[in-house]
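Problem: given the chain below (232 residues), write out its structure.
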Amino acid sequence: MQNFDLPRRLTAEALGTALLVATVVGSGIMAESLTRDAALALLGNTLPTGAILVVLITILGPISGAHFNPAVTLIFALKRELKPRDALLYIVVQIAGGIVGTMMAHAMFALPLLDASLKVRTGGAQWLAEGVAAFGLVATILAGIRFERASVAWLVGLYITAAYWFTSSTSFANPAVAIARTMTNTFSGIRPTDLPGFVAAELCGAVAALMLMSWLLRAGGEGVPMAKEAQL
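Solution.
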């Protein structure tokens, strides 16, 4: 990442977030137009999202780190692996890219470029689900970087694919994506008034994951005792 200047990194973050949101929103529109079965529509929304994450992290990760997510950027800023100014700029372009992604998806399906969502997503259960979703995402990223860096793209894609189904909120896990989804009155939308609860839960979950994983991934001063048989 250090080999690329800030304008290129910001462009990668904006482009990646735009394509991610275009995939989330566009696949939701396509799924809803092809079936009235909610479970099948959710599956049609889930698989493209997981797939595009693998692609985007693989091709843009070497440039910017492939955050595409203000919660992830916040974590790397708290870890002091990203300068505060750079982190703020990352977040700005992620949000802007997400909005452009919604507009692209709408344009491809001949819908108004922006359309405030009416879909209700609120309540303690959904906020908890978003906290869990963001916690798991950050834990996956941090542990993946620590143990299997080459597989991070697949780990994140698979985690989000799973989290779509085990969380009641369908795992937004991303404030930029959540903001962009307030602007689509389609399958993947969320009411603007429900946004603050989602964003707060996502940030809390991400910070909680950082706190736990910082301890969990730190090697102890002493190794785990081995049985005599294993030492021979």
